[in-house]
Amino acid sequence: MRGLAAALALLFVLAGAAKAQTAESADQFIARWTASDTTCRNPTASAVDAVGACDQRDTLAKVLALAGFCHALAAGRSGPAWTRCAAQQEATRAMAQFQRMGGVFVLSARLDGATQVYFIVDSGAATVQIPEEAVEEMKRNGTLTEADFMGQHRFILADGRTMQQRVFRLRSLQIGDRTMENVLATMGAPKSRALLGQSFLRRLNWWKIDNVKNAIEFEFTGAF
Questions:
Q1: What CATH number is given to the structural domain containing 142?
Q2: pLDDT at 158
Q3: How many other β-carbons are positioned within 10 Å of the β-carbon of residue 13?
Q4: Considering its fold, how many domains does the chain have in total?
């Protein structure tokens, strides 16, 4: 449970990377990003370690972007690397269309490469919430295992009531043609709404709802 507490701390409190920017060199930030990225992408890493590493990696990516670094292909390297932006370079942007369902606009997503859900975007939700039926479907098809569960956590609702939910790791969450890996999620009640909360949204550089296009637009730096 100590590991779970550490992962939740990374989720609910922005890392102190931005405040420490002046105290650490760019090379140190890049080294920390690389170490986090390695753990984030390691298929043998535990759910707690993978979720925490992905969250920390994406926080560090924002700090590096603000400092004028770009994550892109560089001369003499086999893959993308962090280098000083030679010119204004945009991070990767994407868009996904909303659909109307049951009187509300929802966002289609695919969980762990197989299970489809329809999310309501909820910036007030601390985590991504998955209805119990979808969780059971993932367990039946083998994309969600006991190794992905990280215990239980007590949440405080807007009206002051508390609620205890099972916490687990989504190995992937795909929206449109973009996939985010190792997303912290909670299991909602049967027939509850799927909520796209802060465990997904805060890993983006920014996001916005376009009411003309009926779509969500978002931007990210580095791996997503």
A1: 2.40.70.10
A2: 61
A3: 8
A4: 2
SS3 state at 59 = helix
125 DSSP assignment: -
The rounded mean pLDDT for the chain is 83
Which H or E element spans position 124? Answer: none
Residues spanned by the domain of 212: 92-220
Q: What angle do the packed helices 26-41 and 47-66 form, to 10 degrees?
A: 150
Q: How far apart (Å, rounded) are the C-alpha atoms in residues 152 and 166?
A: 4
Mean pLDDT of 202-223: 86
How many other CB atoms are found less than 10 A from the CB of residue 102? 7
pLDDT single digits (tens) 4-15: 454 445 444 443
Distances (CA, A) of 116 to 2, 164, 172: 32, 25, 12
- Using CA atoms, how far residue 168 sits from 11, 138, 150, 174, in Å, is 13, 12, 5, 17
Helices 2-12 & 47-66, crossing angle to 10 degrees?
A: 30
Domain boundary at 84, 103, 124, which?
84
Same domain, 40 and 108: no
Q: What distance separates the 2 farthest-apart alpha carbons in the chain?
A: 56
